Amino acid sequence: MSSDDHVLTLILINALGLVGIVVWHLQGRGRPTGRLSIQILFFSAMSLALYIGGIAPDRPDDFALQGFAALLFKSALILWWMHLAWTIIGLMHIYVRFSRKPREAHLILDMAIAIIYLGVALSVLGFVFGMPIATLVTTSGVVAVILGLALQNTLGDVFSGIALSLGRSYAIGDWVQLSDGTAGRVTETNWRSTNLLTATNNIVVLPNSMLAKQSLTSLSRPDETHQITFGIRFAAGHRPRMVEDVMRSVLEASTRIVKKPAPAVVLKAIDATAIEVELQFHVASLATGVSAKNEIIDLIHDQCEASGLSLAAPA
User: Fold this and answer.
1) pLDDT digits (tens, 9 = 90+) for 11-24
2) Ordered alpha helix ranges (H), the chain
3) 226-307 architecture in CATH?
4) Would you call 186 helix, strand, or coil by DSSP?
5) Tens digits of per-residue pLDDT, 108-151?
6) How far apart are CA 24 and CA 171, in angstroms?
7) Residue of 62, 192, 246, 274 with fewest CB within 10 Å of its CB?
8) Cα separation, 23 vs 32, whole angstroms
9) Considering only CA atoms, which of 77, 27, 32 is closest in space to residue 53?
10) CATH number of 164-218
11) How far is it between the farthest Cα atoms of the chain?
């Protein structure tokens, strides 16, 4: 192929690369499938043009071009490598979307994207500009060791976040409780931390490394129903069976607790001064626990007045 033909091929590749970028942006973020189709279409057209022109992206030394032709050659190869990276990343995004992976998968996806961009950057420096890749990799390794020592805590949070994502201990929207007593709904998880929205409407930011070291109880799995226990003391002069029947009527009258699993009345103990009773019931979610408990207390007051039950003094 003549030098003029090579120039025409390079102009075509540069035009395809630039037009592909413009059309890709015009698709908008709301059309990931359309964006991927554009990426594949233009990348395939650029690869076909390279093949017809006999140009190998990994062997730029096969052509000794000068001046404007050399500039076109380098820009064409840079655009091809960029479109290769974008096409791979687009396929990964589509895979995550259609396989319905959890939202936490974006941590692993971000790491994969970073590796792809690093590989493409090294390829461009090595194949397009002729820089020694082995020296660059060695230098990058030394720099990575220095940065790793300087950023131990941050890297610990990053890898802990990846481990938590792979383990799928929780998902966005789950209620969780930690061994230190912290409880809340998971609202966000990122490279460094996980955010919990507590029942008092506060955001608790937990570094991933700290979260990975604690035992975690999921309050949303297998479902969001949550058990609440409530203790009461009645005067010992009442008949225990009567106390049980009255408390059972309280649980049956409640509209803010779930009926399956069925609530229970447990007579825990009796002595000379009091009968200790424990009410066990479930609520639809931890967020409705306070309102359900308030309703139960109000119903206990009404039923005690109606049946003549009297409460015992605190132990």
Assistant:
1) 888 888 888 888 87
2) 3-27, 32-52, 67-98, 106-123, 133-150, 152-167, 208-213, 240-253, 289-307
3) 2-Layer Sandwich (3.30)
4) strand
5) 777 788 888 888 888 888 777 777 766 666 666 655 666 555 55
6) 32
7) 62
8) 13
9) 77
10) 2.30.30.60
11) 110
